[in-house]
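User: Sequence for Aspartate semialdehyde dehydrogenase below. Tokens please.
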Amino acid sequence: MNGRRPVLAVVGATGVVGQTLVSMLPTRPDVWGEVRLLASGHSQGATMQALGQELPVQELAEANFDDVDVCILSVPIDVARTWAPIIARAGTVVIDNSGAHTVNPTVPLVVPEINPDAARGEGGRIIASPGGTTLLMANTLATLHEVWHLREVVAATYQAVSDAGVRGVHRLYDETAELAGNRGVGQTPGDVRRFVSDIDGRSPFPAPVAFNVIPWVGGPGDGRWSSTELRAREEVRAILGEPDLRMATTCVQVPVTTAHSASLHLSFERRLTRADAVRALTERSNSVVVLDDPLRQEWPTPVDVVGTDPVFVGRVRQPGDFPRALELFVCVDNLRKGSALNMIQLAELVAS
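Assistant: Structure tokens for Aspartate semialdehyde dehydrogenase:
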């Protein structure tokens, strides 16, 4: 970088994750000499506040990456597949969270608190940031795995509609507004679908999301497991360095605006106690906060963790029938630590 302060480009700046990322920059270390905001052509001409400045949103074009040191891509998978190699060839380090490079062994998959050294290196290259489902679990799993060694992970996730971007959030609001004035709706088969069928615009979800849960998140995957479920398994295995870890995930879309949750059943090679597990999560990880006092109704919920950066853990239990297992509930803001914050941390690692 020849002694100058590095330049950061944010592609997808006008999306829900991009907006979250840009809004977080003033709270982070003062690293960047310049920030450039880019998006698709329809956002060209817009402006956004970034680091105290009103910056124009530029079109995604090769010329706009001149002298850019680090580029964060927060774009759909097809856009990432096209643009990540182009940007990297120009000497820019690309950080991508689309999942386009999940199974590419030459692309490091990095969570800064777990494997930061994998993000360091010279020259233009691509670094993958895990998906929100993985980041919901990864720090908790890594902390416990380091001490007791994981054998099995069985997860049920409850995922916020902001995973589907602005369209997902608007769809939940629109469906809720349509249904809220109709007391008794949801009491007979098909009535929710009838009420929401007249809402303008195509839903990003395969079923009504208000007053409902949908046992499928992501693309078609292999036809039995969704793309989100398959991606989480591959990414957790890669981050922990355990390619044979037994893992099964069921991803459920729930009517929550922001913040993912998960119920985890974890099996270990060594016996452990609840107290030791809580101590490890409290003392060994700087990103995990344990909030677990059921008698006082203290446990993490999405409406309580939204807008925060830690991974919150509660309902830590050891089943009497499973002396090498734990049950716990985790919750994280999917737009912050579940996406934007991890990419910012990676960009800072690269720039340091």
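Residues 62 and 87 are 7 Å apart (CA to CA).
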